[in-house]
């Protein structure tokens, strides 16, 4: 795909950075399960933790296409680092930028953009995954603020976060209309990390369970308006699908890189290997077009739920297929973890689940297509 000169140079820069600073620790973090802390520091030094926010809020002021390219290139060599970057920007910081008051933006975005700490997003609960309206975490309004009780599961980077955007229900009888969104400082008494998830992949990323016990959150920390939480979380997830798409695209490209390197070393490929290589290459390029297309909608400030769902659905399924195909063609050297593709295979499966499963993406796409017809 042809990129502008500026985006082409940015890709080169991100490729160089990822190979030099991110790739060296990727295998060891996967084996040990240690958080990719050094890579997060390196991304902060490059300004990547504030890539899309304006310079007066401590960001780099770049566009979403540049952001998608950065997530793609980082994930191409280390998906644990890629998901950490994507969750920090799109889930942990975006809602404050989009829905926050000027005071909230000035207070919270500069330290997030500079990488003083990470941002996290707490929606999922033990009994509320795809059906986000089923959350049980409660926020009782008092004279002193909201008293929050409950728990969250699968929350990315929350052990290293300074703030978590928490979904809580002010009135469960109202379902999704009873939800409020709160900016929670992780130093607030009553906030704790209950346990770390033992995941199939993305071993170097941090995914935890959170517990809230009589956690008092000031009224000024409401994001948007009270009872508007569901809309804020859904809009955040729609945009987040661009970066999760880019994260999956990076893994798919990483699997293709491994396959190409292997075949280049092995002399002329068999007919079977040639066919599989070209099938993977076509799918990776198609995924790239979808992810960049969704990013360009965002840059044009046009809401594009269908295109974001296309990108997430397709890129996540391509990543799993690309890694599986590379393992099939290469055989045991790939399956025995000598090559990065076994790690990519495990990491990629989680891309099909996070920020909306493939089934949920298909539901969104069908709904959008049918409502377009009704509007016409
Ligand atoms: C790596 C990773 C990081 C994550 N980070 C975060 C985070 O930072 N913050 C956060 O809040 N959450 C996070 N999550 C949680 C994630 O968003 C949920 O896992 C996801 O929403 C699915 O919920 P669930 O796992 O409870 O599955 P469920 O919703 O229980 O779904 C189980 C199965 O049923 C299917 N299903 C459910 N409902 C429907 C339906 N209506 N129609 C058709 N099929 C359906 C699903 O597709 C799936 O196959 C993360 C998950 C992963 C894997």
Question: How would you describe the overall organization of this protein?
Answer:
This protein is 55% helix and 15% strand. By secondary structure, the protein is α+β, with helices and mostly antiparallel strands. It has three domains: 5-117, Butyryl-Coa Dehydrogenase, subunit A, domain 1 (Orthogonal Bundle), CATH 1.10.540.10; 120-228, Beta Barrel (Butyryl-CoA Dehydrogenase, subunit A, domain 2); 231-375, Butyryl-CoA Dehydrogenase, subunit A, domain 3, CATH 1.20.140. The strands form two sheets. The chain has a four-stranded mixed sheet with strand order 1-4-5-8. Strand 2 and strand 3 (145-156) form a beta hairpin. Helix 1 runs parallel beside helix 4 (64-77) and helix 7 packs parallel to helix 9. The chain is globular. Flavin-adenine dinucleotide (FAD) binds next to helix 5, strand 1, strand 3 and helix 12.
């Amino acid at each position: 795909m042809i990129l502008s000169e500026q985006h082409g140079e940015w890709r080169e820069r991100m490729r160089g950075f990822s190979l030099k600073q991110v790739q060296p620790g990727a295998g060891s973090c996967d084996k040990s399960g240690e958080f990719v802390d050094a890579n997060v520091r390196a991304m902060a030094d490059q300004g990547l933790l504030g890539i899309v926010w304006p310079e007066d809020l401590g960001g780099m002021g770049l566009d979403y296409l540049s952001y998608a390219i950065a997530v793609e290139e980082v994930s191409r060599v280390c998906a644990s680092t890629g998901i950490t970057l994507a969750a920090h920007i799109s889930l942990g910081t975006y809602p404050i930028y989009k829905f926050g008051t000027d005071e909230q933006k000035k207070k919270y975005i500069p330290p997030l953009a500079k990488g003083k700490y990470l941002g996290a997003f707490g929606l999922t609960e033990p009994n509320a995954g795809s059906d986000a309206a089923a959350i049980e975490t409660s926020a009782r309004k008092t004279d002193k603020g909201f008293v929050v009780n409950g728990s969250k599961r699968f929350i990315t980077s929350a052990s290293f976060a300074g703030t978590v955007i928490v979904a809580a229900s002010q009135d469960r009888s109202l379902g999704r209309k009873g939800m409020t969104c709160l900016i929670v400082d992780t130093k607030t008494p009553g906030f704790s990390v209950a346990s770390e998830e033992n995941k199939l992949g993305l071993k170097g990323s941090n995914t935890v369970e959170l517990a809230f016990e009589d956690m008092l959150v000031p009224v000024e920390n409401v994001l948007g308006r009270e009872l508007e939480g569901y809309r804020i979380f859904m809009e955040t997830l729609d945009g987040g699908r661009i970066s999760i798409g880019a994260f999956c695209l990076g893994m798919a490209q990483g699997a293709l890189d491994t396959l190409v390197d292997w075949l280049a070393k092995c002399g002329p490929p068999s007919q079977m290997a040639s066919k599989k290589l070209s099938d993977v290459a076509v799918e990776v390029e198609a995924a790239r077009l979808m992810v960049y297309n969704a990013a360009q909608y965002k840059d044009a400030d046009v809401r594009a739920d269908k295109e974001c769902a296309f990108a997430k659905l397709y890129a996540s399924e391509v990543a799993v297929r690309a890694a599986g195909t590379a393992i099939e063609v290469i055989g045991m050297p790939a399956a025995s973890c000598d090559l990065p593709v076994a790690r990519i295979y495990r990491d990629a499966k989680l891309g099909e689940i996070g920020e909306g499963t493939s089934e949920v993406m298909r539901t969104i796409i069908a709904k959008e297509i049918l409502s377009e017809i009704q509007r016409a």
